[in-house]
Amino acid sequence: MKKLLLVRHAKAEEFAAGGDFHRPLSVKGENDVKQLAQKLQAEKLVPEQIICSSALRTQTTADILSISLNIPQPRATVAIYEASERTLLREINHFSNAYDFVAMVGHNPGIAYLLLNLTGKVRDVPTCAAIVLVFEDADSWQEITHESGVITWYSVPQ
């Protein structure tokens, strides 16, 4: 069985001197992701690894999660930035099978479309939303495919 934690990056500042890719988290965003980490810890939903977009706001979201949850530093990849659900699924299919529970921190609309693709369910995915998907019949990440997941946990900032 494989588990995936999908996280949309926390709230970011509207503008950055270097453009969209370099937008930092807002104070609200930093607080929201710290609260998310507390919820994950309380629910014992701590992933073994975090993969994130290399955009500043997603890296910062992933860094706060990894520090708060005491897990290894996130692995950033530009492939997740502005990625379609097809690209995100391809990334998931290449996760190491050494891990059974992985988090992916990315952007909308990709995360929302990926959620729909993997579960057939529509959920609101505001900034710092987190969704745990379980793939009961998957022994490897390569087996993750269209509508093979079930939502088992969902959280949005308050």
Automatic annotation (TrEMBL):
SUPFAM superfamilies (UniProt xref): Phosphoglycerate mutase-like
Pfam families linked: His_Phos_1
CDD domains: HP_PGM_like (cd07067)
Protein's UniProt keywords contain Hydrolase: yes
GO MF annotations, alphabetized: hydrolase activity
Keyword entries, A-Z: Hydrolase
Catalytic activity, EC: 3.1.3.-
Superkingdom, natural source: Bacteria
The name this protein goes by in its record: Phosphohistidine phosphatase
Taxon lineage: Bacteria, Pseudomonadati, Bacteroidota, Sphingobacteriia, Sphingobacteriales
